[in-house]
Amino acid sequence: MVKFGRILKSLSGFYYIKDDSDNTVYQTRARGNFRQKGTKPIVGDFAEFSTAEQSEGYVLAIKERSNALVRPPIANIDQAVVVISAIEPNFSLNLLDRFLVLLTNKSIKPLIYLSKLDLIDNLAYFEKVRDEYEEIGYSFFMNDWQKLVDEFPDKVTVFMGQTGVGKSTLLNKIAPEMALATQEISDKLGRGRHTTRHVELFDIHDGLIADTPGFSSLDYEIDNQPDLNAAFPELLRYSFGCKFRECTHAHEPKCAVKPAVASGEIAQSRYDNYLLFLSEIEGRRETYKKVVKK
Ligand SMILES: Nc1nc2c(ncn2[C@@H]2O[C@H](COP(=O)(O)OP(=O)(O)OP(=O)(O)O)[C@@H](O)[C@H]2O)c(=O)[nH]1
Ligand SMILES: [Zn+2]
């Protein structure tokens, strides 16, 4: 019998698919045809699958993805909680903006969550940062995980952030039952929590939440040709006043963005990060040209 559903878990070569029509979870395998095509089903995929009594089912086809992450492999993600700590590791606007570029380019809505504010005496700086990001249009949560939970219904949510910022601590507060289930699987597999290859979306707070945090290290790069406009909407807003349509707001005359930075309407740190990312992208283009010439 052919059914449709979403892959919620991948473990030891099996895919667990929740049937759309009756919410039953079926254990399936992917046939060799996926390997031939160079694709592989991943958690979050919408799948067509077969079931048979007394035996496991097969994934027959997967629907085109709206987006996907590589680490952890999850598809069709709606939003990501970007966890950043006020301290330990040190707060970094550069890292935050990098996450925003990465996520907006994958059409994943960022939810910024600032942790470890209890270790900070003077909150004024962070409140100013929050106000700046909220004004641009980003959701920014300061240690208030209860409010964050309101964003979860009907969405697929992943967590990401540098190592040590408090992702696991936050997940434990939001979904203690999930941490427990993950721990049980790790124990069974005999591997540590961080090396387990199990990926799962949990039905929690009326949405789906990934238990495996993404991008815990800094060693990722912005995509080759990211569109910086999506992550810097405030620059985009002013750019309509630039004389040149192709203005990069770096050195062109009659640029409308630079005066807005000078007057404080655009935060200096945002402009600086924008220029830095722009130079990184252009640097990569140069390297690419050199490689092609050889
Ligand atoms: N004071 C304080 N400590 C926190 C907070 N959140 C996390 N920590 C501590 O920070 C350390 C790291 O927290 P984790 O939750 O393990 O961080 P993580 O982001 O999951 O780290 P990785 O698993 O390495 O990616 C732990 O010692 C936590 O107890 C917080 O809000 N306040
Ligand atoms: Zn400009």
Automatic annotation (TrEMBL):
Co-factor(s): Zn(2+)
Q: Which GO BP terms sit in this record?
A: ribosomal small subunit biogenesis
* Keyword Nucleotide-binding assigned: yes
Q: Where does Zn(2+) bind?
A: C242, C247, H249, C255
Its subcellular locations are:
Cytoplasm
Q: What does this protein's record comment on cofactor binding? A: Binds 1 zinc ion per subunit.
Protein name according to UniProt: Small ribosomal subunit biogenesis GTPase RsgA
Q: Which organism is it from?
A: Pseudolactococcus piscium
Source species taxonomy: Bacteria, Bacillati, Bacillota, Bacilli, Lactobacillales
